Amino acid sequence: MSDVHDGRAENEQIEYAAHSLEPAEGKDEEEQLEAHVAELRHRIEEANYQYFVNDNPVLTDAEYDQLMIELQRIERENPELQTPDSPTQRVGAGPVQDVPQHLHPVPMLSLANARSERELLDWHRRAQNILPNATFSYVCELKIDGLAMALTYEQGRLVTGASRGDGLIGEDWTPNVRTIRTITHKLRGKRVPPKVEVRGEIYMPIKSFEQLNEDMSDTRLFANPRNAAAGSLRQKDPRITATRNLSFFGYQIGYVEGMRINSHWETLELLKEWGFPVNPNVQLVHNLEDVMAYCNKWEKERFNLPYEIDGVVIKINDLSHQEELGTVARDPRWAIAFKYPPIQVATKLLDIRVNVGRTGSLNPWAVLEPINIRGVTVSRASLHNEGDIQRKDLRIGDWVLVQRAGEVIPQVVKPVVERRTGQEEVYHLPERCPFCDTPIIRIPDQAMAYCPNKECPERILQSVIHFVSKGAMDIESIGEKMSEQLVNAGYIKTLSDFYHLTEEQLLALEGVKKKSADNMLTAIEASKKRPFWRVLFGLNIRYIGEKSAQLLASAFGNIDALKQASAEEIIKVPGVGPEIGQSVYSWLQDTDNLALIERLRAAGLTLEEERVEITGPLVGQSFLLTGRLQAMTRGAAEEALIRLGGKIATGVSKSLTHLIVGEDPGSKLAKAQKSGVAIHDEEWLVNLLNEHAEA
Ligand code: IVH
């Protein structure tokens, strides 16, 4: 808090000082203390609101601290008076073990994009075609680059803060959300409904993001404020979130009980009344020219904002129009995101170098003259492959345009040909691996070049880094640096060597103490329990990503079945293409790889799918969907049903218990009508999912 600096604040302060801090007389002691605690909390929250939301300090730092210290003292001495929504909890309660899932009673939709005026007009035309007689007005909002949150309030009190997830099921991060100063724990004002879900964006101001990156060691830099906000919210320990200066803008009501709202503008007014920060740059306009003017204005002015935006959101104001327009797939027809092109800056391409990846691929990258793009210094960028360099005609010494479009690795977009001097050099990939000098090979019809040497030190290092990484075996206490030490010491020549490491070996490494050696050994031991698909993903088979590893693991069930499969059988698995199929097949023909699998088996790793017992309220029921759904995609609906224990049937059969019918149903409906299966509409499905979300 900063010092009170304006006259108004001083006046309000006098009014505040009129409330006594001393407990009132006449009540019994316990009641007095409770009333006193309530008063302290009220005054602290009021000061928070005035300071963080209204930018209008009403207490000095010292006064604020005094109230806080007193409240903390009382809560410490009287633990029965502690509540999760006390302002003392804004510093964060203890770490959470599990992050519970949160089923969104009303799906959290995403937005269709318009990237030009033309696309914006198309969107408008589609809406007008559906409602030819309607006169629309529009609310224009900035599209804040953060993460969407759904905040549920019951009787005015914050009960859950959940992330969007896949739109149907998110994660419940309530203890962390409570630490965000601009999120009120209690709704303000007179019109407080029994239950409401407020939606908005959690974001990190650019200054805080830059500060955070400065404070962190190099390896943990966040690429942009959005990643920093997501990474800071999703902390197992809310006390860390509390230190991260996250903020919030409210922009939507998911649902509300006992209250009628007619327009989106009214929604925003209500959010302000309840104490939420609403972005001050929202605007209600009545024609498309003004919408376009808003988009153009903020495209230029966005760089002066203290937070990042990646576009503008345009929402049709009238809620009855919104209802009539409905949604397509997961996007509402009544709103659109006008996206701005990513930020591009020019810098010099000083050199092109190559890395060798975990599967032996040669990956060129650009050495750039360091340049700051919105808070992040960029000095290197990925160049994908040689073909990409040729296509873009990038030459060493060129001025190039570099962009950071929110992705972690910046991209080189194109050379600035007008600035060429003639001194620039055309680039060719080396003929030999820069790490082991083995001649590189090129596979016909593929853009990539490879180092074929399985003992290439760089390839081994990268494969080890991948094996221990979070998505694969998740050996937590071993990061890139430690992987490098282990490989350099000669302890890890092949992945199975992890399972024979000894404490003595680890203690011999520079900077390793007993505690960290023990942590590493425990983490290695724990990795034996990782499911089969993660092992598959960890093996560094070319083209195998997380998704394909999951598909293969569930299709074949264990490594031996996969070993026996022909390339054709592997390719037949839905979602596994010929490139992946061929790659897995040939990897499994190699005797060194087969020997590695046997060593991993002997070490006790999981090489078969665990048969998980299915639980949930819908166990024993099977569902089949036909036709288009309005509120969600079919895939999302199926996923939600599976998570609740239901089964998805492949066709109408005797064992089918429910058929759900969307728009334009297929032949399944007629079949189901004949066979007497229970038939339901989408509303029934939504109610079913909601019912179990609340359970
Ligand atoms: S409205 C159906 N308004 O953009 C309405 N979203 O691309 C959906 N976002 O998930 C959301 N600022 O995370 C809305 N003023 C704003 C927004 C906004 C940022 C994000 C939000 C959403 C994503 C959709």
Automatic annotation (TrEMBL):
Signal peptide: none annotated. Zn(2+) binds at residues 433, 436, 451, 456. Residues 1-28 are annotated as: Disordered. Gene3D superfamilies: 5' to 3' exonuclease, C-terminal subdomain, 6.20.10.30, BRCT domain, DNA ligase/mRNA capping enzyme, Helix hairpin bin, Nucleic acid-binding proteins. Residues 613-695 form the BRCT domain. NAD(+) binds at residues 61-65, 110-111, 141, 164, 201, 315, 339. CDD domains: BRCT_DNA_ligase_like, LIGANc. It holds the Pfam family BRCT. One of its GO terms (molecular function) is metal ion binding. InterPro entries: BRCT_dom (IPR001357), BRCT_dom_sf (IPR036420), DisA/LigA_HHH (IPR041663), DNA_ligase (IPR001679), DNA_ligase_AS (IPR018239), DNAligase_adenylation (IPR013839), DNAligase_N (IPR013840), Hlx-hairpin-Hlx_DNA-bd_motif (IPR003583). Its cofactor is Mg(2+); Mn(2+). GO terms for cellular component: cytosol. The active site is at 143 (n6-amp-lysine intermediate). DNA ligase that catalyzes the formation of phosphodiester linkages between 5'-phosphoryl and 3'-hydroxyl groups in double-stranded DNA using NAD as a coenzyme and as the energy source for the reaction. It is essential for DNA replication and repair of damaged DNA. HAMAP family: DNA_ligase_A. NCBIfam families: dnlj, PRK07956.1. This is DNA ligase. It comes from Dictyobacter kobayashii.
